[in-house]
Amino acid sequence: MSIGDTITQANTGATGTIDEIDSSNTTITLTDVSGIFNTTDIVEGNTTFTVSSVLDNNDFFDQRTNLDVNIVSGSGFEKDELVIQDITEAQGYVHSYSGTNLYLVNTVGDFQASANNEITGQESSTVATINTVTNPELQKHSGKILYIERFDPITRLDSQSETVKLVIGF
To answer: What's the order of all strands across the beta sheet hosting 28-34?
Structure first.
């Protein structure tokens, strides 16, 4: 087993490329992982071994903005409600609200935590102050575009008919 080898777990079909092996040969780090590795199942490559634990990194990213809030007035925020902070002109839509955690999506601008910077729900009229702001895990517009494919437009007539073949397998 060495860096660059591809390993496969027969029971799950999960595969990955070895990126790093610790000095005691007890922990390996994989890249280009496809599928889910299960613990106690056998993994095969140049060497056969059993997986004792799996540490998942970066499987999911939470792209919601989390505001820890204190309600000043109102009964709480409603799902899909527009929330605006007037002083900063920041706004976002409520994904969920539970306890003091208000999760927003499609945010524009930067929310600021302050007892003087209140946010207001546009439908519920709920007013709250922000204790802390936790921004999404990935920064917008910071990634690389790996592949773009452009297609020429296809001109079709309203009276045109087409035949489509659909294959369904079980």
So the answer is: 28-34, 15-21, 6-9, 42-44, 48-50
Burial of 94 (0-12, 13-18, 19+ CB in 10 A): buried
Give the pair of three-digit tokens for residue 124: 């519920």
pLDDT digits (tens, 9 = 90+) for 35-49: 777 776 677 666 666
- φ and ψ at 102, to 5 degrees? -115, 115
**Residue bearing tokens 């969920």:** 96
Q: What does the domain layout of the chain look like in residue ranges?
A: 6-50, 65-134
- Residue 69 has what pLDDT? 95
CA 30 to CA 100: how far, in whole Å? Answer: 38
CA 20 from chain centre, in angstroms, equals 25
Evaluate whether 17 touches 1 at the Cβ level (below 8 Å).
no
